[in-house]
Design brief:
Length: 286
């Protein structure tokens, strides 16, 4: 059984993001209580053990250490094949890495870099710079994280074939064990889609997107990465165990507002409302 926990907090909303999140940090403690309540209800009678754990969001790295610790204490963390936590570069400090590597089961960190070009990062509302992303990678390595996944986005406003290749070259030079790269999508209701409709940004055309994807495939292959999913590339033996389950009909439980679950036959999802989730104590969802 795979367990996903949606941490619905972000410092700020990126222009392209349509995942459920909120900046309401004052609700973090109540959220943790509700997530513990949801797990208590949904784990009753579970027929198979949890073997992978994934904290996504939102921005899990924005959750204070004491709350993250309390949540983990209520979840199954023994005998995991893989435990992953997502992070943003601005949250990655020596103290955070020491905590993650020394006091939690997380041995895999998935970090949203998105680009190594500052102007592209600014356009889509990312809070870090290219230099800060590089510093965060160095920090994770110094702290002993040896299973690192980094995300990039292609088709960003103002991005060229050359700037895309430079971002790829820069990331590959760090040799992360895993690379995820996604074509930018303009989701309804996002700031980025509003910018596109106003004409302040232009969507990459199909030819440009195809050329960028071909460069991605070629450059990662030449660097020794295995292209094992549409958007995922890994050094041999470093394929994501948890994420791969979404492709082979393995059952998974999703905790938190907006999280999805699959029991092997039926798909379900929690309403995207932190207020309602907290009021219900996490019970009656899924």
């Amino acid at each position: 059984m795979k367990l996903y926990v949606h941490i619905p907090f972000c410092h700020a909303k990126c222009a392209y993001c349509d995942f459920y999140s909120t900046p309401r940090r004052e609700w973090m403690e109540a959220f943790v209580d509700a997530a513990i309540g949801e797990w208590g209800e949904r784990s009753a009678g579970l027929s198979e053990p949890v073997d992978t754990l994934y904290f996504g969001g939102g921005t899990p790295s924005s959750l204070p250490a004491e709350l993250l610790r309390r949540l983990l204490e209520a979840l199954p963390t023994e005998n995991l094949r893989e435990a992953t936590i997502e992070a943003n570069p601005e949250d990655v400090t020596d103290d955070w890495v020491r905590f993650i590597s020394g006091e939690t089961p997380f041995r895999r960190v998935s970090m949203g870099v998105q680009s190594f070009c500052d102007d592209e990062l600014v356009t889509v509302g990312r809070r870090h710079s290219a230099a800060r992303a590089a510093e965060a990678i160095d920090c994770l390595r110094r702290g002993g994280i040896d299973n690192l996944s980094c995300d990039l986005i292609y088709g960003l406003p103002g991005q060229t074939a050359g700037s895309w290749r430079r971002s790829l070259e820069r990331l590959i030079s760090f040799r992360p064990e895993h690379i995820s790269a996604y074509l930018l999508s303009y989701e309804p209701g996002t700031r980025l889609d509003a910018m596109r409709r106003k004409g302040t940004v232009t969507e990459a055309d199909d030819d440009m997107a195809e050329a960028m994807y071909e460069a991605l495939c070629d450059m990662t292959r030449m660097a020794g990465y295995v292209h094992y999913e549409i958007s995922n590339f890994a050094l041999p033996g470093c394929e994501a165990v948890h994420n791969s389950a979404y492709w082979d009909n393995s059952p998974y439980i999703g905790l938190g507002p907006g999280a999805h679950s699959f029991d092997g036959f039926r798909r379900s999802f929690n309403p995207s409302s932190l207020k309602d989730y907290i009021a219900a104590g996490g019970r009656g969802f899924g």
